[in-house]
Amino acid sequence: MASSLHTLFFFLAIFICSSGYAANVPSNGLVLPVGKDTKTSQYYTTLQMGSNHATVNAVIDLGSQFLWFACDSYASSTYNPIPCGSKKCEIAKGIGCAGCNLPPRPGCTNDTCGASPYNPFENMLYSEGFAEDTLYSKNNVKVSELPFSCFHSEYLIGFASIATGMLGLARTEISLHKQVANKFKLPDKFALCIPSDKGVGKIYIGGGRYTTPKSLVSTPLIINPVSTYPIYTEGDPSDEYFIDVKSIRVNGRPLAIKTSYLTIDEKGVGGTKISTINNFTVLHNSIYKPLTRAFVKAAANMKIKSIAAVAPFRACFSVESISSFVPTIDLVLPGKNVYWRIHGANSLVKVNNNVSCLAFVDGGKEPRTSIVIGGHQLEDNLLEFDLVSSKLSFSSSLLLQNSSCSRV
Ligand SMILES: *[C@@H]1O[C@H](CO)[C@@H](O)[C@H](O)[C@H]1NC(C)=O
Ligand SMILES: *[C@@H]1O[C@H](CO)[C@@H](O)[C@H](O)[C@H]1NC(C)=O
Ligand SMILES: *[C@@H]1O[C@H](CO)[C@@H](O)[C@H](O)[C@H]1NC(C)=O
Ligand SMILES: *[C@@H]1O[C@H](CO)[C@@H](O)[C@H](O)[C@H]1NC(C)=O
Q1: Residue 98 CB–ligand 2 contact under 6 Å
Q2: pLDDT tens for each residue of 72-103
Q3: Is-cis flag, bond preceding 312, omega within 30?
Q4: What ligand has the least distance to the C-alpha of 61?
């Protein structure tokens, strides 16, 4: 699937000239709401785009490179296609030149910088053009000339019915946090708090001020040397967010896992990343098996009764037998006593009134990335991505601090 384009881009701009809209920046940067579509377990935000402030419900994807949305009925006097060969096209890492034989309209222009939006639900890569327009947030921040890709709604296969696009928050020059940081001279930081079912979480962009949970723990964000996007230039690192999980413990006891699965090799295989697209954390089979075994055993010691599993899960328990505590799962990180504890609502999922399952799935024997921390494990946890000092700070479950993503 991965194809590399060797010669196309030698001249990657390393700095975006800020077009200085320093007015109108509230002290807490840009704040966006986060909702959960319960049918698909997709998390989405709502923004307004263009001169008519068109509402866009965009699924949040930490691993996706830019904003893209359906513009079949989009009209805006501030819409501009990004020409191929332009400086802005280089910054966007545009590939090729897009044209269109229909009457000109947003999404249909000639000589347009080529964009390759990716639909992770269908594993489809599209070929479109880049454009730019103004983004408006509910807290009255206006971000002019924001690059995005505009396409036909027929490409939204697999998306929640409420969604009309996707907000990519990867480590790219044209992702919303980088654009906000450059345009308003704010630090390139964002915090994400995704809600469980009926809550409303938030994204704070630009180092916003939020109620900081008591126990924010930090770990370095590490770079996977090989791109994880379906199309890339050879030598491009991944712009997804990886952390250096060293081991995993269940109720304090380390699992026997080969370290080669936990590290990232020179081909970019292995390691741990964070994804808002996967419903549940996906583990390499050689991690999934020992985790499940250890969890079932620890649960039995706590008098939690195992029952027939419900797919795709392989360890399920009788709801009746679960008191308030379940075994803890710790992702152990570099440093002294640094770990991300997954427990309670983040470790089990209720599949029906009688059955709760360990909310992790088997990623098979040859996944590209050994651990992909998914949405269920991220809910009601505050995550702060600091791209200035390249670190991730996390709160662990806010529910245990009598809080939630609806309250930060
Ligand atoms: C997430 O869960 C929903 C509903 O349970 C299901 O429809 C969807 O296919 C799942 N998506 C993934 C990526 O597992
Ligand atoms: C693009 O160029 C072709 C060939 O010159 C022309 O027929 C077409 O109308 C143009 N499309 C747009 C959207 O301007
Ligand atoms: C749950 O258990 C009750 C009592 O044992 C039973 O009547 C009911 O059918 C079960 N529900 C499901 C969804 O299995
Ligand atoms: C938890 O939060 C609620 C609402 O903010 C508050 O009423 C309650 O007193 C808090 N409980 C504890 C134990 O802090």
Answers
A1: no
A2: 999 999 999 999 999 999 999 999 999 999 99
A3: yes
A4: 1
